[in-house]
Amino acid sequence: MLIRWLARSFFLLIALCCGSVAQALPTGKSQRTVEIEGVALEVHTYKPPGYAGGPLLISLHGLGRNAGGYRDYAVPLADRHGLLVVAPLFDRERFPVWRYQTGGLVRDQQAAGEFRVEPKEQWTGQLLLGLIDAVRAAEGRPDIPYYFIGHSAGGQALSRFAAFIPNAARRIVIANPSTYLWPSRSARFPFGFGGLPDSLANDEAIRRYLAQPVTVLLGTADVGRGPDLNVREDAERQGPNRYQRGLNAFRAARQAATDRGWEFNWHLVEVPAVAHSARRMYSAPETGAALFDRPQQ
Q: Does the predicted TM-score (pTM) go above 0.70?
């Protein structure tokens, strides 16, 4: 009886540890549901034919929540660089703006005084780290290196992820977002560090943010002011359009690091003549450089 009990316990432990991605990702395009800390995420994946154990690329969708499309946009990158692509879906019902674009830190972003911050284990960036762990377990490679790329709303999410979630990403590519987390306490969260508790907004927190391996990837023709552009007062202070906001955010970050003598690991990459198109941004040769090279600034 003891042997049977030990055997059942062993297999239960294996099932719990492996979760819903126990099998390696198949070659080509696929889709599955991954459960992370009780949260079920639909993920769209791609593994190139002849995949030889290359890095993992997490691709974050925009406002349209079309995760399958953001997997597809990354296929040429995956084929060219031997990447494993995973594009999670953050649906609108469970992940509204405060929980997706701005990371789930603060629910009531209109509150006065110091914000009430949600429990850290519930921040959306923790789900991204859990997803990476799940893919690593499925592939049997606990040390697979990983990269992030996010366009528009996905870029907004990565701006806050880079600031507040300790991670080991090789590079975090923020493409054409509507707003950025400014490296300053003069703007209130989610546009800056203002209003957050000291532990999240002190000089050390901002220093860590500027040391992150961030690439600001901008389409030079992304200058429209369509209905999806954030036009709140704090957003407008960042610039009149996405292209200008990206330039301003990068320059402000570089200046903040220079003024304080801090490490600065951000890069700026521009994609000529591309507007607010994830497909064209992902397929541009500059995007491969943004991920894997050290581009000129």
A: yes
